Amino acid sequence: MQSLVIRRAVPGDAAQLAQLAARTFKDTFAAANSAEDMAKHLAKTYGSAQQGIEIASRDMHTLLVEDAGVAIAYAQLRRDLMPDCVRGHAPIELWRFYVDTPAIGRGVAQRLMAAVNDAALAAGADTLWLGVWEHNARALAFYRKCGFHLVGSHVFVLGSDPQTDLIMQRGIKQNELAG
């Protein structure tokens, strides 16, 4: 992974991002959800047109990780309504954070989280928050390792299935995750 590049996504990345996003979401959650709910969610959330809208949004910041020109991970920050349990003067949501299965365990997630931190700082945020499915043990452990702590929960609807996402947050500091 010596050729790893982390950059802001541009409109021309929409199709590539849509494929990566759908694949990583399905790889992460398909085994624990119905095929119908998964198909409904993927169709609504990860099409090329939708990714193009998100990439172009002024309220969203999409980071794409490439290895030798191939997209292997991404993260999206957004300013949106936040749950009452989130504290901070200028919170921003880490809305999506996914690493493709073959790249897991190779340090990609740590580097992407450092880039997320930098992007949040550049956006003027002082608090980073996220929702993570209560049964996603790997993600929960990673976020705790990155300094996030539990502050509440909310409902996330996957297809037609209401599920519980735990809300986690952490402060952001200059160069906190650099290294």
Topology:
Layout: E1 4-8, H1 14-29, H2 35-45, H3 48-56, E2 60-67, E3 70-78, E4 91-99, H4 108-122, E5 127-133, H5 137-145, E6 149-158, E7 161-171
Helix pairs in contact: 1-3
What does this structure look like?
By secondary structure, the chain is α+β, with helices and mostly antiparallel strands. The chain has a single domain (4-171), classed as Aminopeptidase. Helix content is 34%, strand content 33%. It has helices spanning 14-29, 35-45, 48-56, 108-122, 137-145; strands at residues 4-8, 60-67, 70-78, 91-99, 127-133, 149-158, 161-171. It has a seven-stranded mixed beta sheet with strand order 1-2-3-4-5-7-6, with helices on both faces. Helix 1 packs across helix 3.
What's the short version?
Helix content is 34%, strand content 33%. It is of the alpha+beta class and 179 residues long.
Distance between the termini: 16 Å
How many whole angstroms does the radius of gyration measure?
15 Å
- Which descriptor suits the 3D outline? globular
Q: Supply the CATH superfamily name.
A: Gcn5-related N-acetyltransferase (GNAT)
Q: Helix/strand-derived class?
A: alpha+beta
Percent helix, as a range, is: 25-40%
State the order of secondary-structure elements, H for helix, E for strand.
EHHHEEEHEHEE
CATH class: Alpha Beta
Instruction: Write down the overall mean pLDDT.
Output: 92
> If strands are numbered along the chain, what order do they take across the biggest sheet?
1-2-3-4-5-7-6
Number of domains: 1
What is the annotated CATH architecture?
A: 3-Layer(aba) Sandwich
Largest beta-sheet details:
7 strands, mixed
| The CATH topology | Aminopeptidase
Number of H- or I-type helical stretches:
5
